[in-house]
Amino acid sequence: MNHTKQKSWPQRLLVLLAAVVLCAALPAAALAEENTASIQTQVSETDEDIPWADPPQSTPETGRSDPAVPTPPPQDPATPETAQTGEHLEGYSLSLGETVTIYFYVTLPEDTPQDAAMQFTLPDSTVTQVAVADAKQVEVNGKSCTAFPCQVAAKQLTDDIEARMVVNGKYGPVYTYTVKDYLNYLLEHDYPQQTKELAGTLLVYGGKAQLYFGYRTDAIAGTAEPNSTANWGSYQLESSGTQTDDYYGSSLLLEPVIQIRHYFMVPDGAECTFTFAWNAGEPETELQPVDTNTRFDGKKVYYVVTPAIAFRRADAMPVVAMRQNGADLCILRYGVFSYGDMVRALAAVDESQLPLLNLLRALDDLTTAAQRYSVAG
After folding, report:
1. Which of 264, 255, 317 is CA-nearest to residue 295?
2. Contact 215, 152 (CB under 8 A)
3. I want to staple 194 with a disulfide (CB 3.0 to 4.6 A). Which of 227, 229, 242, 373 is the partner?
4. How deeply is 208 buried, as exposed, middle or buried, from its count of CB atoms within 10 A (0-12, 13-18, 19+)?
5. Contact, 180 vs 200, CB < 8 A?
6. Is the Cβ–Cβ distance between 197 and 373 less than 8 Å?
7. What's the CA dihedral at 296, 298, 300, 301 to 10 degrees?
8. Where are the alpha helices (DSSP H) in the chain?
């Protein structure tokens, strides 16, 4: 789905009703054949990452065997043989920054090589490895632990994450856990109210993401309704500059991270630069424009993508600027809930937009909870 610069607002809303695609959103039918599958998003950890718990907790009451005493699963010809790799699983923690990241904490023998790795496997057959050299080294309850991160999309909170050490080509026993297990543990035990609020809103956001994307809807992470009233009138797009008509539209991406894609029309032969800042007057980051190979009103259409937006900053109104020779052609203030305000308007005339509206309402609640958690320390 997208904001587009076409016709009047009522006409624009009608045009958009049939074009609601969240992760490959296009501002107009003329761009419908863009190959978005080739666009890769880089995910990086930032100082905005929010730690969730003090020492990681082990053995949530899910009916599973204690993960600190793993039992090897039955082997089949496609499964590497299980060996004794020497690690001991101590527990888990979760962080919420630009992504949902669960950490597996293990103690390792002193002779574990730096190229040994924790291998993660998700139900969609995605396999990743994190080497010891790249993992966090932390102390928990007086023990020196290695924390291996595994990132998941919001819709994957109920997915079984299989983790096993790979040491010198040998595979250790499999540990299985879900983000939902961890969040339920926080909700069922003695943690501060801000922590429980954050856990509960993340479960609801994950559930709404499953419903919107049609992903594992038989096992919804959180079934409650969001509290947000979606009153986003204060987030409406603001623009300034000498050529604001060259702003073409915007779309929102929620996977693998939250980003906003802005489209601009550039005259033939013009060399324009694009920048991003969280607020006007703050340091700017250069954005690389991508040619859509599309023309509109005799101009080329380019897009730029903002950096990843952490959950607790989803209510920001970042500034994206298009300049030529230092002159401000088009300066935008546009945030996630600027997009959300348009979704709210669409949902008022088309009930099929309600799953998307509910997803953004849940994100609103999650953003508020993440901010409260951060302030509470």
Report:
1. 264
2. no
3. 373
4. buried
5. no
6. yes
7. -20
8. 9-16, 179-188, 193-213, 336-347, 354-376
pLDDT in tens, 227-242: 999 999 999 999 999 9
The crossing angle, in degrees rounded to 10, of helices 336-347 and 354-376 is: 140
Contact 286, 275 (CB under 8 A): yes
Token pair for 370? 């993440």
**First CA to last CA distance, the chain:** 36
Cα 19 to Cα 27: distance, rounded to the nearest angstrom: 9
Q: Strand order of the sheet with strand 143-152?
A: 50-51, 88-96, 100-107, 143-152, 136-140
Q: What share of the chain is helix, strand, coil (3-state, %, to 5)?
A: 25, 30, 45
Phi-psi label, residue 352: left if phi above 0, alpha if psi -120 to 50, beta otherwise: alpha
Determine the longest span between alpha carbons in the chain, in angstroms: 68
Across 19-25, average pLDDT: 29
What are the tens digits of pLDDT across the range 56-115?
333 222 222 233 333 333 444 456 777 788 999 999 999 999 999 999 999 999 999 999
At 173, list the tokens: 């026993």
User: Strand 143-152 vs strand 136-140: parallel, antiparallel, or unpaired?
Assistant: antiparallel
Q: Where are the beta strands (DSSP E) in the chain?
A: 2-4, 50-51, 88-96, 100-107, 117-121, 127-131, 136-140, 143-152, 161-167, 170-171, 175-177, 238-240, 247-253, 259-266, 273-277, 285-287, 290-296, 299-305, 319-324, 327-333
The two three-digit tokens of residue 264, written as one number: 């601009």
What are 68's two structure tokens? 């600190």
pTM over 0.85: no
| Summary mean pLDDT of the chain | 81
Are the CB atoms for 87 and 107 separated by under 8 Å? yes
Compute φ and ψ for 171, nearest 5 degrees.
-105, 130
User: Cα(82)–Cα(73) distance, rounded to whole angstroms?
Assistant: 9
